[in-house]
Write a structure and sequence with these properties.
Elements (H helix, E strand, L loop, with lengths): L2 H14 L4 H12 L5 E3 L5 E3 L4 H14 L3 E6 L20 E5 L5 E5 L10 E4 L5 E2 L3 E5 L4 E5 L9 E2 L10 E5 L5 E11 L9 E3 L6 E4 L11 E3 L4 E6 L5 E4 H14 L5 E2 L3 E4 L8 H4 L6 E3 L15 H4 L7 E5 L2 E2 L6 H5 L7 E8 L2 E8 L1 E2 L2
Parallel strand pairs: 10-16
Antiparallel strand pairs: 1-2, 3-4, 3-6, 4-5, 5-9, 6-7, 8-9, 11-12, 12-14, 13-19, 14-17, 15-16, 16-17, 18-25, 19-20, 20-21, 21-22, 21-23, 23-24
Helix pairs in contact: 1-2
Length: about 375
């Protein structure tokens, strides 16, 4: 901007004084503020545009905190004699993404297929270094896959808690150092129920997700979902926007670090979550709107009580409704599987359940899921 323009502004402001302050402000706005800070109203007036500088700063900081820890997974190239261009990892070849958990090379991604020994992959970190996984462990309860590579001094993010999330909360999905998706939480207790078989839950498997507003591409499975504090709150389990909360898979990872394997508690129940299901006859729900209804269905080949399971040994029966484990109620916010998986194999728990309209209790010793 030239010196003459500044002088014109000063002269005009002095001449018109306080009585003409509005004119001075319009001139200052027109000359000194960038054009993108303005929008034209329908009446032809120029209005100052509302900016989101503070939010943009939060997004940038959250992205920068996690993006260096995001990695990609590609199929291992088998034909090494086809020339250098044939060895390039193209975006369309990417199988999934994931996040680094420890500086010495433990990683997390999503997808049962990653644990198939017939499949061979490479890991590409954000600084374009390539590694072959030395160990791959599948957590059956979440279908999160933990991989170990030979590396040191890797960047690691902070992990956030599921209980601190809120409906409608804005989150980001960092795809790499240069790109991200912004979205928000659409559902904090999403469970797919497109067919009758989807209604059956397992005490050994998490089938409740965080649902995002946006769908993502298939190759973005395993991507970390990050809150505005720069904390990883979950991993994307599929392109439909289902996210496995960090709280669900973190205990499995800690078990690997401690015991060299995943150690999950086993109860042995298949159930219908009454808080997630409508239309259950009152003869089965016993008037309850929450709880875990133990149920078998021959047509769907589901068995409510697994043979020789801790639940069977405790005398639980088909049609019983579990209301509490110890003092914790089975609710929409925390279902039976979530409560059970808070414990360890060998722990004793007290179940409060409803049988034929009468409350009863049972003491059960959890076993290890093999």
């Amino acid at each position: 901007m030239s010196t003459n323009i500044y002088l014109k502004i000063i002269i005009l402001t002095v001449i018109f004084g306080l009585g003409a302050g509005v004119v001075g402000q319009l001139l200052v706005d027109a000359y000194l503020l960038p054009a993108e800070n303005f929008i034209e109203g329908t009446d032809g007036r120029i209005n100052k545009k509302i900016t989101t500088t503070e939010e943009t700063q939060k997004i940038t900081e959250a992205h920068d905190a996690v993006a260096p820890a995001v990695f990609e997974i590609y199929p291992q190239k088998s034909n090494t004699s086809a020339g250098p261009l044939a060895q390039i990892n193209l975006a369309g070849d990417r199988i999934s993404l994931g996040v680094i958990l420890t500086s010495d090379g433990w990683l997390a991604s999503s997808g049962r297929a990653l644990a198939d020994p017939k499949n061979h992959y490479i890991v590409v970190t954000a600084d374009h270094k390539i590694f072959s996984p030395k160990q791959i462990i599948l957590d059956e309860a979440t279908e999160i896959v933990f991989l170990k590579i030979d590396a040191q001094n890797l960047p690691t993010p902070k992990l956030g808690a599921y209980e601190n999330l809120s409906l409608g909360e804005k989150v980001i999905v960092p795809l790499d150092k240069q790109s991200l998706v912004t979205t928000q939480i659409k559902n904090l207790a999403y469970a797919e129920s497109n067919a009758p078989k989807d209604l059956f839950r397992s005490s050994e498997k998490f089938l409740k997700y965080i649902l995002l507003e946006n769908q993502l591409a298939p190759g973005e499975t395993g991507t970390p979902v990050v809150n505005y504090n720069g904390e990883v709150v979950g991993l994307l389990s599929n392109s439909r926007g289902n996210v496995v909360p960090t709280d669900f898979w973190q205990p499995a990872f800690l078990s690997i670090l401690k015991n060299k394997k995943i150690s999950r508690p086993y109860l042995g129940i298949r159930y219908i979550d009454l808080a997630q299901t409508s239309g259950i006859p009152e003869s089965l729900s016993q008037g309850e709107t929450a709880g875990a209804l133990i149920w078998s269905d021959q047509n769907l080949q589901t068995q409510g009580i697994a043979k020789n399971s801790p639940a069977a040994k405790a005398g639980l029966k088909n049609g019983d409704i579990i209301l509490k484990i110890n003092s914790e109620e089975v609710t929409l916010k925390k279902d039976l599987a979530e409560i059970v998986q808070d414990y360890n194999p060998g722990d004793e728990i007290n179940l409060l359940f409803l049988r034929n309209g009468k409350e009863e209790t049972a003491k059960i010793k959890l076993e290890e899921k093999l």
